[in-house]
Amino acid sequence: MPAERSVAIDRHAKLFRGLADPARLSPLLRVGKGKCSAGELARDCGLSPSNASNHLQCLLECGLVLVEARGRQNVYRAADRQVLRLLDASTRILHSSAGALIDACRNYGASRRALRASSPAGKRAPGAARLRQTTTSKNRASSLRGELTEHLSARRRR
What is the value of pTM for the model shown? Predict the structure, then answer.
């Protein structure tokens, strides 16, 4: 794969990782409807002020939102119409026939935090849970590498 293509894919992946966190996506969707203060974003998105501030800082550093000072408040807005178009396109995809498949997807369903909270590991000693998660993650990664290798081999044979 040419280096330029790899860089482009990495940049896309970085963008979508940033959008993958509901605590960042929710404020971004909210500012897509119009300007609002950090406090309004926290309230409207169900985030603590501290959490909202951290995620807004991330969105700001990534160039997805802009901020302007109005007196003692910071008011946020979407940085670019292209960001809003991307969010609109994702909404259209979710309302299409692909939306049901996305809802049924097991790979990207619940957040890790929700999975941890609902698992029996959440009730055990933190060290044991971390060790089990690491082992499970390694097993999952190994399994995914195997599946990917099989998939790529099958594609090459075609």
Answer: 0.63
